[in-house]
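User: Hello! My lab partner asked me to get a predicted holo structure for this protein. The small molecule is zinc ion, SMILES included with the sequence. Please write out the structure tokens.
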Amino acid sequence: MPEKIQVIPLRAFNDNYVWTLRSGSSVAVVDPGQAQPVLDYLAAENVRLVAILATHHHQDHVGGIAELLEAGKVPVYGPRGEPIATLTQAVGGGDTVSLEQLGVSFEVLDIPGHTRAHVAYYGANMLFCGDTLFACGCGKAFEGTPQQLYASLEKLMALPDETLVYCGHEYTMSNIRFAKTVEPDNVALVEREASDARLRAENRPTLPSTIAREKATNPFVRVSRPAVVASANKYLGKRVSDPASVFAALRKWKNEF
Ligand SMILES: [Zn+2]
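Assistant: Hello! Below are the structure tokens for the protein in complex with zinc ion.
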């Protein structure tokens, strides 16, 4: 009987998380932008790195991979079609990543928009979604269109409500401030602000979130709600109602917020 998987948040830079999956003495990491926090963890816990997963090519997600490989070669999974020099296993939507030492496998989902070929890993009730979906927010559409990014978020919202959502950054409190501007009367949002503020006051992560929680509070996936549409129209100074246009308005607004 395999041991249950633990997920440990290792902090990198100011607000990145290197999500670290552990079963027994085997460890896999998601998006190691820096090697040192991972090397410190491996040494302190006397555990062994068996795999690296990358969601997209940005340096704050892959910058630590080369140094981790110096300590021992392990498979590096990441999106086909993005410039990640350290990749050994290029993956894309529909592929499966099986981490046998951890007794878990993940389905790869294509979620372009933040970057051209950004992927997510979904399995064992967990979602690792990099910089596409954030708690109460979403990433910027750097290499894709807002429409693509919106379609990617919709794909993630189709996952089961109880799915645990592990995002690439701790951006929750600033995202909540924007969300409250868009939807000041959302009671679930006000409650979320109070509970997440308590976690941050104790220097604890606000993650993982859940798909249900995002559906209740994240304005970027609530673009069909009348209150969200009304706020987007007020910002734009004109009337739009289709979800992708409302989403694009929110994304632009947040960039300026
Ligand atoms: Zn990024």
